[in-house]
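*** Fold description ***
***
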Amino acid sequence: MAVLAKICGINSAPAMVAAVEGRAAYVGLVFYPPSPRAVTPEQAASLNAGVPDHIAKVGLFVDADDVTLQRVLDVVALDILQLHGNETPQRVAEIKKMFGVPVMKAVRIAGPDDVARAADFVAVSDRLLFDAQAPADMAGALPGGNGLAFDWQLLAEKEWPLPWMLSGGLTPDNLAQAAAVTGAVCVDVSSGVEASRGVKDPEKIARFLAVAKSL
């Protein structure tokens, strides 16, 4: 069975076309203004216009308030809300109940304690996403999309009662190894398919998706 893939941080039509033609299972749109991949709700709606229904549209938010979430959802049809900040389990549950959209909570990993902390979100999330925690001294670090990988062995032989995605530093070249070590059947990539920070490379997107399908 092929590994399902999400192309995150799409902010251009060529990138979206590459994701659709490469049969991505998910496409991600970033609604976090400090990110170089950020889009407005109007831009996101335009990018989504030609995406088939079978591809899930994911909106990435970082500690967003209700007004921000509602403004985006009023304009953009999203299938999943990806919460990539410091949201508490209570906040995740609140968002899921208030907006009625499935929620995926990102858990940033630096060590075993972070993996254990993911259990706090199992009861309130529809999905989990494991990403790398950026070092405190990393200049210009974002909540995600920093091109960093964590120790994949931390997830080896772990089982979760809900679907999950592997993220953080993935590229077409290391995807096979990452999936083999972690057992991931769904992966998320952003910086690993870029020509430069925030600029997606359609050829790299195609390569990544081809590798995912081959696994």
